[in-house]
Structure formats: C-alpha cells, structure tokens
Design a protein that fits this description.
heterodimer; A: mainly alpha; disordered C terminus; B: OB fold (Dihydrolipoamide Acetyltransferase, E2P); disordered N terminus
Amino acid sequence: MNRLGPSLATRWVIGILVGAFFAVPLVSTFLFTLRDPEGGLSFARWTALFDPAAAATLKPIWTGLGNSLILAVVTVAIVLLLLAPTMILVNLRFPKLKPAFEFAVLLPISIPAIVLVVGLAPIYLQIGRAFGTGTWTLAFAYGITVLPFAFRSIQASIDAADLRTLSEAARSLGASWPTVVLKVLAPNLRQGLLAASLISIAVVLGEFTIASLLNRQVFQTAMVVVNKQDPYAPAIFTLLALVFVFLLLLVIGRVARGTGKARS
Amino acid sequence: MTLDHALPRTKDNLLLARAGEGTRVELQGIVKSYAGNRVLHGVDLDIAPGEFVSLLGPSGCGKTTLLRVLAGLEGADEGAVLLGGGDVSRVPTNKRDIGMVFQSYSLFPHLRVAENTAFGLRRRGIGKADAARRAVDALALVGLADFADRFPHQLSGGQQQRVALARALVTEPKVLLLDEPLSALDAKVRVQLRDEIRRIQLRLGITTVFVTHDQEEALAVSDRIAVMSAGRIEQIGSPEQLYTTPSTAGVAAFVGLSSVVSGVAEGDHVMVWGQRLPLQSPADGPVDVFVRPENVYFASEADAATDALVEESTFLGSMRRTLVRTESGELVRVQHAPGIHPSFGDRVRIAVAPEPVAVHPRG
C-alpha cells in the first residue's frame, strides 16, 4: 500500500462527497420526472413520451435528435477520412510539422464556443451558398470542436504502432499507398480510431452553443425549446442522454485499456 | 531447429522449384544529402546475379541509406539504380519487385502468419487459395509451416524474423534486401538465422544485399563485403581479401581485430620489434602496422621479439586472448591456446609471425 496516500476513511469521505456532488442533481432530476400530475410518484411522465397527444410538443426533440445523429455520422466521417489520414501523413512524411500540427488541432479546446461562432458566422454564409443551410453542415464546425479529443485518441494509437516500419514493409511487398493505409495502418490504429469516433459522438450530442447561435436545430437546442412547454420531457431526455454518454464513455474506457494492453 | 528439417524437398516446394539465376544490381554514383549534410558521396556498386553482398560499416556510415535508396524508400539526389539492367531510379518501392527484411519486427500485428506471408502475393493479384499455398511453401522454407495460424505476438523474435524472410521471398523478388535483420536477436538465434539466411539464399540463387555493423556476421555469410565509411565504399572484396589484405587503415581496423604498433617501412618490408615483416603494399618511413592477434605469439628468449607486461586475459572457449603492454607502451592482443593462463602483471615476450601486414603512414 502507498503510505503517502490518504487513509481509507479519508478516501471514503472524498468518494461520498464527490459521488453526492454528481448524484444529487441526477437523483433530483429523476424524482422530478416521477412526479405524477395527480400527486405522488409514478412513471406517467415517461409513458407520456409515447402518447400520440404529446407528439406535437415533442416533435422538435425527435427532429433535433435525428439531426444530431446525422451530425455525429458526418463528424465521425470527417475525423476518419480527413483527420486520421492527415495525422498518418504528418507522422510518416512530415514529422517536422508535428509540433505545429499538434498546436493547431489542440487550439479549439482553448477557444470558447461563442468566440468560435463569431469567426464561423461569415464562413457559414459561404457554406450556406455552397451546400445549403441543412443542419448537417454544422458538422464542419463540429469537425473543428472535436479535433483536440479525436487527435489525442488517434495519436496514442499512432505512438503505440511503428507506422514507419509497417508502411515500408507493406510498400516493399508491393502495396500502393491506399492499400497501406486501409489494409495495414488502419487495422493497427483501430482502437484509436474507435475511441476518436465515440468521443466525437459524445461531443456532438452534447453541443449547444454553436448550434443555437447558428440557428440550427439539434438535440440540445430542441430540449430548450420543448422545455418552455413541457419541462418533464427534456428532463427525461437529459437523463437518457446522460446514460447513453455514460455507456459511451465506458466503451471508450475499455477501448483505451485495450490500446494500453496492445502497447505493453 | 536444423536446416535439414527446415528446408523441404525441392520438387514439392514451388519457391525452390523456381529458384533462378538472380538479378544484377547496379548502383551508379549515388549521392544523398539530408538537410545539406551529405551522407552518400557518389557510391558505385555492381552486384552480380545471385551474389550475396554485405554493406559493412559503423553507425552513420551510410550503409542503411544506400540500402534504402536501392529499395526506393529514399530517393537519391544523383545517380542511378539499375535492376537487371533496367533503370528503376524513378520507380516507386512497391513496383521495384524487391523483398526486404527490416531491423525491427515488421510483421503486420493484425494478420496471422499465413496472411502476413501471402500479403505480397495478394498485392500482385494472385488468388487467395494460390497465395495461401505458396505462403505455406515459403513458411516451410524457414521451418515455420506449423505456425501459419498464429499471430506475430505469439512468436519469438527469431521466428518473427523468419516469417519476415519468408514473406520477403515468397513473391520471388529480383533482389532481397536485409537491413540488419539479426541485430534485435540474442546471440545464439542470431548465428542460427544468419546461417539459415545464407543457405536459403544459395538454394534460391537470389541476389542479396545485407546491411550489418557486425563484421563477424558479414565475414560468415558474404560472397563479397563492401566496407563503408563516411558515405563511401572504402574497399569491396571477398571476406578473405578484406581480412588478409585490407586496403586502408580503416578497413584493417574495422574488419577483424587488429593491434596497431609502430614500425619503419623500407620498400617491401617493415621492421617491427626488430623483426622483418613483409608488406602487403610497398611503403617507406614511419608507419602504423596492423597486427592480427592470431599472428602474435609468446616467444622464447632467443627469438627477435619484445618484452611486455600482461594487462588482462580473456577465455573465449576454444582460445584465449591476452592483452599485453609492450615496453614502448603499445597495447597488443595475443591469441593463444586456452591452456596457457597469463595473469595480470606477468612479464612475457611476444613476436609476430612473418605474414604480410597492412600499414598506414603515421600522421
């Protein structure tokens, strides 16, 4: 046992306090959703989600959820088809650019979303002209906001694999560059790519500021809209979204542990 | 594992049945610089079909860069690479028809041994079943046919390099390039695999270029050795030529073990410790003389010789090597029978056998 660490009692106290900090709002929200219109506690608010009468009120949430899922898919595509190949290229062919590249991709984490939107607004005027104003176009902005998270996951896998030797071996055996990337490098970066994809989905599902300021309807903005008419439904969806993201983080954790194992 | 088990019968093995004459490899005036720092200074090398040539030299001498230029993994600033008479200088690596084994383990971790071995065949459009059959033939050649279903992490380092060798050979490339493939292995496996590579190379008749910094390795397997230093080939010749008649001090110092003693050259001979030794090439004046340990022996009082004090003595199995310091302060290695046990501080007399020696003007 580490004698420098806190005692068992102290650790329990810290654990209970931190647990309560997270649990109290969640339990309160859950109890709130159980409040029956006629008094007492019941699942009436939960079953009401599937009531045809409430369909009109809840429609923005379903639309927003659909939009967010599409955005998640496009954002993951940007990560896998643009970021990952660029990282492979930088690591293999332009290693001197690595520090500058890393600085650039980590930058969005230090820029508040609202500042990002100020810069993005005029760009979205052009995007609107080129691609229309479909909600999916938000993925270009989300592609930037997920960069730091996706970069870290993929870089961990790249550091664990000897990309140079693998690609040179594949080249010497007659593989073209697309074959090298798809058949040799991607399978060896699988865990990093999976973790980057999952974390991108989590970020996209939780994003509010950019979507709201650029007037796009996504899951989070829809919740605010519906909340004005029915505060219970957004609370239920918030809980469900938290459970989903929690499960997603568990998967990411398992994937990350897999990467660690592969490295050892 | 012995090679008798490892090598299958020729008529059963497609790879052996197709063993050919090999391809001529020519490097002409290869110049390569990194960020203004020239690492290859116009290197010329002509390798005969089926020949096993080693590029030998210390770290940073340019031997790996030369191999990478030959493989197409680095582009040369000047010069040409010819395979079988055709200029491939501008041909990308994947179209050069080479096989390469790397220093670090380069098997694809996500593919089984059989899939790794068949990788090059599949890239050449060969069907899955045919590729699998030829992969097993190649694995049989390195004695690993029973390991086809394993993943690389389930193999030892030596087995991984054997699979890498099978993978490089299975496509029947024009030239086999070996970039220090043994350096990550332990001593016993290294010797075993080294000999196996040579025997397989001889059976297949494939032109092979082997990069190593280990002179013992190069001496053991090569038809010819190119000793490199500072981006140039200092000398190229058979192992015997390099060992017995090194053309420069650098080669003499790098190939085999030499002691450097002072002497005075007079035309075709040099005087060392009052002894007259023949010279490999004529010289005059004060010179450094390169003396092999096996040519130095413990002399009797009557011999023309010099007195020396024992510094240390190392037991090497079939022989013993003793380091002595002469009266003039030169350190000389003596190779002798293991039955003689000199101790630190013992006074001895040493002499040199009258074999031709290499010298270098003392600067």
